[in-house]
């Protein structure tokens, strides 16, 4: 087992060798994930296992654990979103190999170049995020809503009043 996650890996060669990697990844280094985060602070614990399945399929399986800071779309405050992702990807070079992949694997199209591990981790995290993140306990959002005071705008002048005057001329 390797206790360090490199930036790039030849996934095919590592799967042939049957390797397991473990390490931590800073959230700030996952550029594709940054736009959805409320804060880039923190890190994720990642375990990757590469190998050959009993039917000869090269695979990348793993877990990603940690916590993300997202913005609650109900109250617009920060919220902590616990993360416990498990994935199993079949390594393929072409669309044809993708069609032959057993159902238990999601396809990961790899090229001859080493694969960026941060991109794989970002993709798996993005796939598990909720479409609309909200606090699980609605009381957290309601506390903010009860404190909110609507501004007193008073009587506003109708912006079309000028047009009404032109109509009478």
Account of the 3D structure:
The chain has 169 residues and is of the alpha+beta class. The protein has one domain. Helix content is 25%, strand content 32%. It contains five helices and seven strands, in the order E-H-E-E-E-E-H-E-E-H-H-H. The strands form two sheets. A five-stranded mixed sheet has the order 2-3-4-5-6. It has a two-stranded antiparallel ribbon with strand order 1-7. The longest helix is centred in the last third of the chain and has 12 residues, at 117-128. 20% of the residues are buried. The mean pLDDT is 86.
Evaluate the radius of gyration. 25 Å
Q: Order of SSEs, N→C? A: EHEEEEHEEHHH
Estimate nothing, just give the exact number of structural domains: 1
Which range best describes the helical content: under 10%, 10-25%, 25-40%, 40-55%, 55-70% or over 70%? 25-40%
Query: Beta-strand percentage?
Result: 25-35%
Distance between the termini: 87 Å
Structural class: alpha+beta
Instruction: Report the strand count.
Output: 7
Quick overview of this protein structure:
By secondary structure, the protein is an alpha+beta fold. The protein has one domain. It has helices at 11-17, 95-100, 117-128, 138-147, 161-168; strands at residues 8-9, 20-26, 43-52, 58-71, 78-92, 106-109, 115-116.
């Amino acid at each position: 087992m390797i206790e360090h996650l490199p930036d790039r890996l030849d996934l095919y060669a590592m799967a042939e060798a049957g390797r397991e990697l473990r390490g931590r990844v800073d959230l700030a280094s996952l550029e594709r994930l940054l736009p959805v985060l409320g804060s880039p602070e923190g890190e994720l614990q990642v375990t990757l296992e590469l190998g050959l399945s009993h039917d000869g399929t090269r695979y990348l399986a793993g877990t990603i654990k940690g916590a993300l800071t997202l913005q609650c779309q109900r109250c617009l405050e920060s919220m902590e979103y616990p993360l416990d992702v498990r994935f199993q990807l079949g390594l393929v070079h072409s669309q044809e190999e993708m069609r032959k992949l057993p159902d238990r694997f999601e396809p990961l199209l790899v090229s001859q170049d080493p694969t960026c591990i941060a991109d794989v981790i970002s993709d798996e995290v993005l796939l598990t995020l909720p479409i609309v993140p909200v606090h699980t306990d609605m009381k957290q959002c309601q506390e903010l809503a009860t404190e909110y005071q609507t501004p007193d705008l008073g009587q506003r002048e109708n912006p079309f009043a000028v047009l009404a005057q032109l109509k009478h001329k």
